[in-house]
Design brief:
Strand content: 15-25%
Bound molecules: fructose -6-phosphate
Order of helices and strands: EHEHEEHEHEEHEHEHEH
Low-confidence stretches: none
Structural class: alpha/beta
Mean pLDDT: 97
Radius of gyration: 17 Å
Oligomer: single chain
Helix content: 25-40%
Distance between the termini: 21 Å
Shape: globular
Strand order of the largest sheet: 1-10-9-6-2-3-5
Number of strands: 10
Length: 240
């Protein structure tokens, strides 16, 4: 585990984008695992800049995303598909056919099976970017007495609905379910890049720094099992 404490959000974003950029430079056919949410926005901005400056090329890059809300159309600005288009896919020369997010296609059960099949065929990623929830969730794997290995439909916890309500007009508008990679899927990458920024992540980051237990009630603790994991945090997340 490599823990990098940055002065602020911009430095964290820069560090994260450098790691992803280097992976793409080394392997133009890099397979990326991507995350949404406010944390990786700055990282995507830097990657777009690197692309515009001719430092990296997305032509042969492919990607899978961690999760998507249930019941939200992909053209809805609140969807994670929309987020990825807006922050990365529409701004670089990635072939959108090679980018994948969980999506509703048939029943929820069928959709889950389809995404699992897709992940299996996609194989191990070169890097997986992860944010953490204030409660330590990874992707949408919420604290629980059991965690899923593979794709599943998750009932979002009250605290996650609360945390994500900032992106919606009201808390009532936040979807109650999401389709998410499981823990085994989320960790199927040569490198894990776990990012945390801001005071509201401090409790989780501090708990992680002071525990030597792996707990399903604290999904973030599982990142300690990955052989090549970077935890990149800013001072606010680290010190509170
Ligand atoms: C997003 C995801 C979530 C977020 C987490 C943090 O694809 O899987 O686990 O990474 O909820 O969200 P932000 O970055 O908005 O604080």
């Amino acid at each position: 585990m490599k823990i990098i404490v940055c002065d602020d959000y911009d430095q964290m974003s820069k560090k994260a984008s450098e790691i992803v950029s280097d992976i793409i430079k080394e392997n133009p056919k890099a397979k990326l695992g991507l995350a949404t949410g406010s944390t990786p926005v700055g990282m995507y901005e830097n990657l777009v800049k690197d692309y515009e400056d001719g430092k990296i090329d997305f032509k042969e890059v492919s990607s899978v995303n961690l999760d998507e809300y249930v019941g939200i159309d992909k053209d809805n600005p609140q969807s994670y598909q929309y987020f990825m288009n807006e922050h990365l896919f529409d701004k670089v020369n990635i072939n959108k056919e090679n980018t994948h997010l969980p999506k509703e296609d048939g029943s929820l059960e069928e959709s889950v099976k389809k995404y699992d099949k897709l992940l299996e065929e996609f194989g191990q990623r070169d890097v997986q970017v992860l944010g953490i929830g204030p409660n330590g969730h990874i992707a949408f794997n919420e604290p629980d007495d059991k965690l899923n290995m593979h794709t599943s439909i998750i009932n979002l916890k009250e605290e996650t609905i609360e945390a994500n309500s900032r992106f919606f007009d009201s808390k009532e508008d936040v979807p109650k379910q999401a389709m998410s990679m499981g823990m085994a899927d989320a960790f199927n990458a040569k490198t894990l890049l776990v990012l945390a920024s801001g005071k509201n992540k401090h409790k989780a980051v501090e708990k992680f720094m002071h525990t030597d237990k792996i707990e399903t009630m604290f999904p973030m603790s599982f990142i300690a099992l990955h052989p090549n994991c970077y935890l990149i945090v800013d001072k606010q997340a680290y010190e509170g």
